[in-house]
Amino acid sequence: MSASVSRPLAQLPNALTLGRLVVIPVFAWLVLAADGGHSWPAAALFGAAGATDQIDGYLARRWSVESAFGKLADPLADRLLIDVAVVLLWHAGRLPWVAFLVPARDLALVAATPFALGRGYRFGVNLPGKAATWILYASLACVLLTTKGTTWPLVIFWIGFGFAILALVLYGRKASEEIGTRRGTR
């Protein structure tokens, strides 16, 4: 922990991450109670949650208070919130069924994580993965804000999805190279 940050303040990044997890049921209720997935309150909550993703990581790095919990919980909170939004907006008829590839990608990452970690792979966020998260947060908030049939938020969503697929490919390649290199040295 950085000497310049008090112990209670050093917990702020993890508290923000936990806050994203806690708002998921509230967000889900707001979307389900909305008229066809159009909800300013849900969009505001979702947008605020997306902003905390940027703030918690920045503070943890700036204050040198990164933790094992934060490294696991932060991406999990993002994935869960985005995946819940995708499922609920699909249910409201605002996203096509193909959007389920976003949660499918996240399930693939979750399923591969124990295998990769058990072989010494260290997950690190890559730039396309970060961009995908930012773009998906922004696009899904815009879907919530606009009326059904508005296409520009969907264009942004598919750009974010493209970045998510690129990130998955890069994670897979890096894991394959790292695990392969470790096997070759044993």
Write a brief caption for the model:
The protein contains seven helices and no strands. With 186 residues, it is mainly alpha-helical.
Describe the structure.
The protein has about 190 residues and is an all-alpha fold. It has one domain: Four Helix Bundle (Hemerythrin (Met), subunit A) (Up-down Bundle), CATH 1.20.120. It contains seven helices and no strands. Helix 2 packs parallel to helix 4, helix 5 runs parallel beside helix 7 and helix 6 packs antiparallel against helix 7. The longest helix has about 35 residues. The protein is globular.
Described by the principal axes of the CA atoms, the overall outline is globular
| CATH uppermost class | Mainly Alpha
Question: What integer value in Å does the Rg equal?
Answer: 18 Å
**Percent of residues in beta strands?**
under 5%
Unreliable residue stretches: none
Largest sheet: none
- By secondary-structure content and strand pairing, the structural class works out as mainly alpha
**Could you estimate the helical fraction of the residues in percent?**
over 70%
Mean pLDDT equals 88
Order of helices and strands: HHHHHHH
